[in-house]
Amino acid sequence: AGLLGGTAGAMTGAAIGVLSPLLTLPLTVKGLVVTVIGGLGSIPGAILAGLIVGGVENLFQFLRGVSERDIYVMLMLFAFLVFRPGGLFAAPGGRD
User: Fold this and answer.
1) Predicted confidence (pLDDT) per residue in 16-58, tens digit
2) What is the pTM of this model?
3) Quick one: which of 20, 41, 83, 86 has the most CB atoms within 10 Å?
4) CB-CB contact of 85 with 93 (8 Å)
5) CA torsion, points 48, 53, 57, 60, in degrees to nearest 10?
């Protein structure tokens, strides 16, 4: 796993031209958004949420531009936290 991660980091650095500890912060935030929307602990939910978030990003990037696409993803996260806090694949029943 470490070899694969190091190789990916080297390839990313070569493609972008600069490396920084904050380089992956937007990806980390997107991962958190996908986890919350899909439901914590749900692999199928994470896959479906990843497809949904990617589709929403691409749609709004096409319609509104790159600068506004993340706003709509965060609004979608807010809507899920308000109306469906357990995510798409929440376990039936309430919290204990």
Assistant:
1) 887 777 777 888 888 899 999 998 888 899 999 999 999 999 9
2) 0.70
3) 86
4) no
5) 90
